[in-house]
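lol forgot to send this yesterday, sorry. struct tokens for the thing we talked abt
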């Protein structure tokens, strides 16, 4: 999985304290404006407004990419539970974008993939699914509002994380390009290599659209209609 480094500068005015994360806190950005994607939120974190509001977080995820703004051993300020609260001081924060010009289902899938990756690679986290919590848990805020506002939205998100975890538990088969770069990771089912479509297609620069009602997928080549 590709994570785009978009780290805040060392001289950022908000303090990031040492952290040993136990939880992953899931947020929605609350910003449905066009263009309010991961790159824009990365810029926002550097703005005076964000500094005045004393907010920062670890990852922003949209339909195209995952951006990381803080290292996992430093805390952010996102949970609304105060200077010493476990949300702020012991949880990794993920913001899922809601920009109206983005594909929200794809953003949620990318976020679930990121959560699965963190569950597998951050040993200090509580066991899954206990470790994955809503911002709501820390402060009572209606966040992540899109997942919370949809019937079974949160349960569906956790189920998607579980699917990614299960697929990762199988014997991994790296799918590489000619330069040896890993594009995706699949697994063997008999003598067939099974690969998560979105992971491979997006690594190849294609866009994946899932149509829930038809249970069908459209692949789009950027630049073509
Ligand atoms: Zn939130």
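and heres what i got for the seq, position by position
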């Amino acid at each position: 999985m590709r994570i785009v480094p978009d780290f805040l500068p060392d001289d950022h005015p908000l303090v990031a304290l040492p952290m040993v994360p136990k939880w992953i806190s899931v947020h929605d950005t609350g910003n449905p404006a066009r263009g309010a994607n991961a790159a824009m939120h990365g810029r926002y974190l550097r703005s005076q407004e964000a500094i005045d509001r004393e907010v920062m977080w670890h990852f922003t995820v949209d339909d195209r990419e995952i951006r990381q703004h803080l290292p996992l051993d430093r805390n952010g300020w996102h949970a609304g539970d105060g200077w010493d609260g476990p949300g702020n001081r012991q949880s990794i924060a993920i913001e899922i974008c809601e920009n109206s010009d983005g594909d929200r289902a794809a953003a949620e899938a990318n976020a679930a993939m990121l959560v699965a990756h963190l569950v597998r690679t951050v040993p200090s986290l509580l066991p899954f699914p206990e470790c994955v919590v809503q911002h709501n848990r820390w402060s009572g805020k209606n966040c992540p509002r899109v997942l919370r506002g949809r019937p079974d939205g949160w349960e569906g998100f956790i189920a998607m994380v579980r699917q990614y975890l299960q697929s990762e538990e199988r014997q991994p088969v790296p799918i590489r390009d000619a330069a040896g770069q890993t594009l995706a990771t699949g697994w063997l089912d008999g003598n067939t290599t099974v690969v998560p479509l979105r992971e491979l297609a997006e690594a190849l620069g294609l866009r994946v659209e899932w149509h829930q009602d038809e249970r069908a997928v459209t692949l789009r080549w950027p630049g073509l209609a």
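Residues 4-169 form a domain with the Lysozyme-like fold (CATH 3.40.80.10). anyway ping me if u want another try
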